[in-house]
Amino acid sequence: MKKTAIFAASALALAISAAAQADKNNSEVTQTGVSNYSFVDQNGPSNEAEGSISDIEQTGTGNIARVTQNTMAPRTHESTVEQIGAGNITDVYQNGEEDSAQTGFTSEVTQSGTYNRATVNQSGEHSLRSSIVQAGSQNNALVNQTTSSNGSKINQDGFGNSSDVYQGGIAERSIINQTGQFNAADVYQEGGFSKSEIDQYGSSNYANVSQVADTARSTIDQTGLGNAAYIDQGQFNNISTVTQNGISNLADVSQH
Question: In degrees to the nearest 10, what's the CA dihedral of 16, 21, 25, 30?
Answer without folding.
Answer: 20
